[in-house]
Amino acid sequence: MSLKILLRHIKINIILPIYQKWVVMRLRHKKQINVVFIASSLSMWRYQNLHRLLSKHPRFNASILILPFKSYTEEQQKEDVRALISYFKQYSTSFFVGTPYKDFKSATIEELKPDIIFYPQPYLGNYEATSDYDRFKNKLLCYYPYAFWMSQNDWSYNLPLHNHAWKLFYSTELHRKDAQTYAFNKGRNIEVVGYPNADNFLFKEHINQWKPQKNPKKRIIWAPHFTIFISGHIWMADLMLTITKKYSDKVQFAFKPHPRLFTELCKHAEWGEEKASAYYHEWENMTNTQLETGEFVDLFMTSDAMIHDSGSFCVEYHYSGNPVMYIADNFEEQVAEKGEFGQLAMRQHYVGKTEQDIINFIEDVVLAGNDPMKQGREEFVKQYLLPPNGKTVAENTMDVLLKAFC
């Protein structure tokens, strides 16, 4: 073992746990523990149910701070802030905004005096230096994965936050197993509570998010990832618009792009902001199409099928029980790169490599109802996607916090 690795081991696996235990012991004597949740993008917001539970408990003072991702375009940052404000107002949830914003209370993380901070992503550099988690290593850092991790690699399990966090609240025992293999701290800080969005999929009433139509139609979501250029599937941009018109009397479509896609399109030499804006506008305004850039649980649960190439949606859409197609030229290679959980999730998909594959999926599976993969999807949900202990994910998480501080 090199001296550098030895010193890192001493810091992460010996000194840090001792310090965190000392902080926990000190907080046990505090009347109320301040918990701050960072909200950056509505589609990645996973803490609503936990915030609601903690807000009702006398042991905690829970706050939400809206901080958009600094790497996004200014236009997208403004839209993310607007969407989050609208969402929190809808549910009568109090919040602060990280930058001065008309008619709303502003604050910094330090002004909220956190004891515990929940970040929405594990990546360093999402925010200005004064707000990034690297600034708050003296606090108890926590994290819900904003997506179901499918891969086995360092960026999934071995980033600085993974090793420095007090608690990582993971979805399944298979994810804990992967972390024990890849994380420098061997996953010692992991609690398996279930996937946070499971509470929204399983335990809430779902609202119809689809445009009214004169006649009943099947509802299909297209959800491209922001790496659509890299993966070589940009041909789908024009194709999907053509398909929406071809099946306008039978199907309505929702365009659910990754939150970062607009920013990437604006930077791309063949697109740019004007073309990207026009494309989004077209999806938003056709009679049988709509643009969805925010919360997606209700959209999923009131749909009939989805076409996508997103890692997280490989799992999340299975909560709907509906057929789903994954777009990939090299599907088997992508499956082989995943961990055990990711492989199981991807195997529940129909695979699309060509325009004809997509048309066959729409006509045979969605419209005609020939769905031979239905039973496999149902078994996958029962075995892996239900929260443990017969409780909600938020309840499991609060139990961990109460056990630590009581």
Question: Your description of this structure?
Answer:
With 406 residues, this protein is of the alpha/beta class. The protein contains 17 helices and 13 strands. A 7-stranded parallel sheet has the order 3-2-1-4-5-6-7, with helices on both faces. Helix 2 packs across helix 17 and helix 9 packs across helix 10. The relative contact order is 0.12. The mean pLDDT is 93.
List keywords for this structure.
406 residues, 6-stranded parallel β-sheet
The computed structural class is: alpha/beta
Mean pLDDT: 93
Number of strands: 13
Q: What percent of residues adopt helix (DSSP H or I)?
A: 40-55%
What value does the Rg take, in angstroms?
A: 22 Å
Shape: globular
End-to-end distance: 39 Å
Count of alpha/pi helices: 17
* Major β-sheet profile: 7 strands, parallel
H/E element string? Answer: HEHEHEEEHHEHEHEHEHHEHEHEHHEHHH
- Main β-sheet, spatial strand arrangement: 3-2-1-4-5-6-7
Regions with pLDDT < 50 over 5+ consecutive residues? none
Strand content: 5-15%
Brief digest:
With 406 residues, the chain is α/β, with parallel strands linked by helices.
Fold blueprint:
Layout: H1 3-27, E1 33-39, H2 48-56, E2 60-66, H3 74-90, E3 96-97, E4 116-119, E5 140-143, H4 154-157, H5 160-164, E6 167-170, H6 173-182, E7 190-192, H7 198-203, E8 218-223, H8 236-246, E9 251-255, H9 261-267, H10 272-285, E10 289-291, H11 297-301, E11 305-308, H12 313-316, E12 324-327, H13 331-337, H14 340-346, E13 350-352, H15 355-367, H16 374-385, H17 393-405
Parallel strand pairs: 1-2, 1-4, 2-3, 4-5, 5-6, 6-7, 8-9, 8-11, 9-10, 11-12, 12-13
Helix pairs in contact: 2-17, 9-10
